[in-house]
Amino acid sequence: MTVKQLIAKLSKLPPAAIVVVQKDGEGNGYSPLDDLDLGTYRPDSTWSGERIDPSDKGPGDKAAVFLAPVN
Question: Which range marks the domain in which residue 15 is found?
Answer without folding.
Answer: 3-69
